[in-house]
Batch of 2 targets.
Target 1
Amino acid sequence: MLVRYLSQIGKYFLMLKEVFKKPTKWAVMKGLIFKEIDDLIIDSLGIVAFISFFVGGVVSIQTALNLTNPLIPKQLIGFATRQSIILEFAPTFISIIMAGKMGSFITSSIGTMRVTEQIDALEVMGVNSLNYLVFPKIIASLLYPFLIGIAMFLGILGGWIAGVYGGFVSSNEFITGLQTEFIPFHIKYAFIKTIVFALLLATIPSFHGYYMKGGALEVGKASTISFVWTSVVIILANYILTQLLLT
């Protein structure tokens, strides 16, 4: 079993090497990149905005309801919302949700091309199919931090609205909490994580879709497996990056 996992990891890195070989003509690649930006980034805006806004509100309300001691200042609600959203929720949990949304889309689209022999047709025409299919997704994923920036803003906005209009904290207290002990490096840390997660989101589902075997049923299985492994690797990368950057 260990040998199988190690061989898959090796195969994954060999795939990454092949992605950058024999590039497709820019005239063709440009259209593919814009299509992937639309499919992976623009189409994800709605779900990211919806989840971020309401989770920010829930974090604010739960923090407020647990502040039973009158000696603890209400500013802590804003502080806790900011820390939760910026450090973990926006970069990590949105990425795990995107592993289900973006990852399944990538695996199923490439897997369907494998099943219907479209990838074989690309190879016959002398096109580097990995560069043609995976490289545009990697370039599109570089805009993923834009999504996470929106998630951070809407999460904090949702927390402010839930806290202030729910009667848990005044607007001034919440904003004071947001500004308390703010460390600018936390934003950099969140975006460094985001870029790593973006590359994982683009490449791991592509790997599972490209190397799948079988028919339509196996496409569904490959999508499930890719979601599981993308989530596992994101969580492991999150731990490693936190250990390296924050300790």
Note: The mean pLDDT is 89.
Target 2
Amino acid sequence: MVNGDVQRVEVRLAVEYPGSGATSTLGDGSMRPIDPIPPICPRHGEPETGRVRVTVAADASEPRQGSNRFGSALEAAYTVQVAAVDWPVCARCVAVRTRWQIAAAATCTVLGVIFLALVFALVQGAPKIYGLALLSVFGLSFLPIYVALRVLEPKRASLGMSVAEDGSELVISQAHPEFARAVAAQRM
């Protein structure tokens, strides 16, 4: 426990696959927790202020050995979805998400304006160096997409969220103890 961090715990939530009438194996994409998810943020242990849809995949989206960052981001984006779960978030989670969304929107806007200015300059007969600058800005315009893939989407990975091998449980390996207590209290 460094810097006041709490000791994280593993929490398992039983899941069902509607339509089949029983717990089933991975792959039908309609998994949902049997018991309601407690209104506690699993990351910070604070009361829920809202819910966000979190994609849960059959395997943890850890990069493979030897894959580069961009390749692992694409791999995470195209991972087969098992289910999307409405997940509780606290005010801190919402604030962080909002800051990243504002930063991505500002970056897109600035790069878009620069791109249009360079296109206008090229149409007006500007030197070829403007063409190189245009290509650079075009390449940089993908930066917010990359940030979204690497930072915003895989929030489930920071909690260690995955589906058990047999598909019967949703496993949160890095849950806050308050969330674990709330889950345990629901089972009693």
Note: Residues 99 and 105 are 10 Å apart (CA to CA).
